[in-house]
Amino acid sequence: MCGRFAMDQETNDLIEEFVLDGNDFRDWSISYSIAPTDTVPIIRERTHQDTGEVPRRVEPAVWDFHPSFLKNTKRPQFNARLETVATNGLWKGAFAGGRCIVPMRGYYEWTGEAGRKQPWFIHAGTAGTPGPLLAAAGLATARKLPAENGEELWQVSTAIITTEGRDASGEIHDRMPVFLTPDVYDRWLDPHRLDTDAAKEELLAVLQRVAAEVAAGMTAYEVDRRVNNSRTADPGDPGLILPVG
Asked: Is the pTM of this model over 0.90?
């Protein structure tokens, strides 16, 4: 986990939910089947170099973490393990100063044998009724890519931090996203770099605490197998997260 999730809120809803100053992602469309390499909305703060202001915005990011130093690879990098996120060379720079939120309604996991896998939707509501929007702890990075006009453009990409699966998620899969509670949004999104090991350890402890708190309220139910194939499932179909049976 996490290899697929649903995000059913419009841009304006995200602005209200996360008390944003604005956004740069008006092209976002609701999707109930978001897969790695898709473009997703993220919430992040960046310090304005000229004014020193720190606006909070919703921005597009490719769900495939790709810092400028990483060579092209066929395998997308979309999950970072909480246990090594502060020390692993791929993630540690973003953990220190590139943190973001990846909003979602819930995510999918599968049980069973290959060819007969049963998808489950895991969320924060009651059985069969998706609950409040979830805020996954994410990492963001940016690199320059060539544009059609010969110039360069910035591409932002992201990954979701995962931890040991607990409660409803732990019954289906051994990993789950680290979900944040609203009281730690400001701390997590603070763009100032963590420059000491003590500061990093303190933030890791916060993540462990809130992840356990949110996990205690998670619920899972079976959904239609149409969601099994990300290439054929209609991402705009809300029926993908409805319970079967």
From this structure: yes
